[in-house]
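Comment thread on ticket #2218

A.B. wrote:
> Attaching the input chain for the structure job we discussed in standup.
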Amino acid sequence: MSKVQANTYTDQSGKGAPNLPHGAVVTGVLTATSVNQTVNGNVTVSGNVGISGTITYEDATDIDSVGIVTARSGIKVGAHAGVGLTIFTDGSINSSGIITASNVSVASSVTATTFHGNGANLTGFKSGVLERVSGQCDGSTRSCSFGTFTFPNVTAEQRIDFNSYTKLNSSEITYKPPSGCIGVMYEHSYLQFWLSTTHSIQHHKLFIDGAGDGISGATEITYTRYNTSETYAGALVLFRWYFRIRNDGGSFTTTTGALPSWNNNHTIYLKSRQYAGGNAVPRFHQTNYWDGEGTAFHQPSITITAYGPTT
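C.D. wrote:
> Ran it. Output below, let me know if you need it in another format.
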C-alpha cells in the first residue's frame, strides 16, 4: 500500500475537482469550504449537526429544536395509519384523544358534542339562570346573593277549616334576586287532603309583601287565584308563579305581579280558606289515611329561581 502526500488535488486539467468514482473513506476530520451533495442512501451522525440555514426532509424520528419550528403544510402526530392529532395551516386542531391543559384561553367560542365537569369555575357563562335556591321546608338556610335564605320549618299538619284567608305556613319565604335579574320563579310543592267532608273545596291566592319596587305592604296578585276541589280530595299540589322584572321604573302590576324593579327584600306566601262550613280541604302536609289506617306526614318544599338574559 502506498501513501500520497500532496497539498492540492485537482482533475486532470488542473482546473476542476478530482473524480472519485469509487467514493472516499475518511478516518479523520474532513474540512470543506462548502458542500453541495445529494445522498441517495442513509446518513448516520452519532454526534450533533449544526445547520445555520434551512433543513428540508420528508420524515424524521425525533426533532429537538431550541428555536421555532415552521411546518408549511401542517403537523400530524401519530402513525400514518392512525393520526391522532392534526394541526392545520389555518390554526385549527383536530384531536381524536383527550386534551389536558392547566389553562385554556379561547378568544371566541368552544364547540363540543359533550362537556365534562361541574363547571364550578366557569365565568362569563350565560345559561339564563342567575341563581337557584331549593330545599325542603325544614328551617334550613342557604347563602345566596342577598344574604341568608331561610326555608319555613314545617314538622306537622296545618288545618285551615274556616272562612277567612289564613297564611299557608309552608309557603312563606323572603327573597331578593341578584342584579341583572329579569324574573323570578316561585315554586311550592305541598300535600293537601280532605278531613271530614267528602265534597271538599278550598280557595287559594298569592301575596307579595314589603316596601319599595312599587310595593307597599301585603299585596294580592289577583291572577294567581285557584281552587282545589274534588270528592275525597287528596293530592300533591305544585304551585308555580313567575314574577317578571321589567326594569322600567314603572309601577307594580297587581294582576300578574310584574315588578318595575326588585332591589329590596320581599316576602312571598300563599293564603287559603274553605269554601264554606262543611266544604273544605283543610288538612295540609298530612294524609287522611295511610297504609289502611292512621295518617302520614309529608314535608313540603320550595324552589326559587332567578333568571337573567341569555344573550
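A.B. wrote:
> Thanks. Noting for the ticket: The chain has a mean pLDDT of 84.
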